[in-house]
Amino acid sequence: MHQKKGDTLKVSQTELGMPWKEEKALQQQRESLVKEAVRKEKPFRELCKEYQISRKTGYKWCKRSREEGSKALGDRRRGPREGSAQVIETRWQLLILE
Predict the structure, then answer these.
(1) How far is residue 80 from each of residues 32, 59, 75, 89, measured CA to CA in Å?
(2) Predicted pLDDT of residue 62
(3) SS (HEC) of 58-88
(4) How much is the average pLDDT of 12-34?
(5) Domain tally for the chain?
(6) What whole-number distance in Å separates Cα of residue 26 and Cα of residue 74?
(7) Is residue 61 a part of any domain in this protein?
(8) Would you say residue 88 lies in a domain?
(9) Are 27 and 73 in contact (CB under 8 A)?
(10) Cα–Cα distances in Å, from 5 out to 11, 15, 57, 92?
(11) pLDDT tens per residue, range 34-82
(12) Within a domain: residue 19?
């Protein structure tokens, strides 16, 4: 149900049909997509549409699964790694000293 508040329209997450409802289920849903893609019972485009993801993302998950196994379908860390600033600083120091 849409609720009108002023000129804005509030829509709940369930109304939007968010593809990944629970954080814990992400990997399982990705695995399910990959299994369905391997069976080739539906066109890949249609499958991605059902899972509400882009084909690019679908192909990325299939590739990860093929190359690294199902554990690769979990969330990956984003942003700089710990200590990366230290590595960059050390490289700059070495360049300056040369």
Answers:
(1) 30, 25, 15, 14
(2) 93
(3) HHHHHHHHHHHCHHHHCCCCCCCCCCHHHHH
(4) 67
(5) 1
(6) 7
(7) yes
(8) no
(9) yes
(10) 11, 17, 35, 54
(11) 999 999 999 999 999 999 999 999 999 999 898 988 777 877 776 666 6
(12) no
Residue 67 domain flag: yes
The set of long-range contacts for 48-52, using a CB threshold of 8 Å and a minimum separation of 24, is: 51/19, 52/17, 52/18, 52/19
User: 20 or 82: which carries more pLDDT confidence?
Assistant: 82
Q: Cα 44 from chain centroid?
A: 17
List all residues 6 or more positions away from 51 whose beta carbon is below 8 Å from its beta carbon: 19, 29, 33, 58
Question: What sign does the CA torsion over 84, 87, 93, 94 have?
Answer: negative
CB atoms within 10 A of CB 70: 14
**Domain range for residue 68?**
42-74
Average pLDDT over residues 24-28: 77
